[in-house]
Amino acid sequence: MRLDKFLKVSRLIKRRTLAKEVADQGRITINDKIAKASSAVKAGDELAIRFGQKIVTARVEELRDTVKKEDAAKMFTILKEERLEKIEPEFIDDED
Fold this sequence. Notes:
single chain; about 100 residues; alpha+beta; RqcP; rRNA-binding; protein biosynthesis; RQC P-site tRNA stabilizing factor
């Protein structure tokens, strides 16, 4: 199954077009390799998705073409959620 379709069906990302944009920006990895929207996803794969200042790591449990809202969460298991430290820009003081 394509990555963008899995993200939409599993409801990790609400819209397939948004899933495609996030993947094309290089913010998703499958098993520690940067993934495209068209990358194949299979059961057992580990996805890391960067949402702003947060990285969510999930394991794919099962693949389905359609799923009810209540059953969508069974398609994956959240392994961890990490908050990234907000990086403050360094200010250079040119005045002495």
